[in-house]
Amino acid sequence: MVRYIARRLLTMIPVLLLISIVTFVVMNRVIGDPVLMMIGQDAALDDEAIERMREEMGFNRPLPLQYLQ
Predict the structure, then answer these.
(1) In the chain, where does DSSP find H-type helix?
(2) Residues 6+ apart with CB under 8 A from 53
(3) CB atoms near residue 15 (< 10 Å)
(4) Which of these, 28, 11, 15, 37, lies nearest to 64 by C-alpha position?
(5) I want to staple 49 with a disulfide (CB 3.0 to 4.6 A). Which of 16, 20, 37, 45 is the partner?
(6) What is the pLDDT of residues 5-30, one digit of tens each?
C-alpha cells in the first residue's frame, strides 16, 4: 500500500507541473498585455512609460523566464 501511495504521489508531480504551465500560457495569451490591462484604455501614458512598466514587472522577458519568475 505504501508503494502504491508513493507511486501515485510521484506521478502527481509532472501532472501538476503540466497543469501549471498550460494555465500560465493560456492566461498569458487570453489576457493579452497585462500592463495595458492595468493602466486601462483611457490612460495617457506615453510609450516610454509603458515600456518601463513592462521592464519593471518582467513582462518583456520570454515566456519561460516569466513562468520561472
Answers:
(1) 2-31, 34-39, 47-57, 63-68
(2) 35, 38, 39, 59
(3) 9
(4) 28
(5) 45
(6) 999 999 999 999 999 999 999 988 88
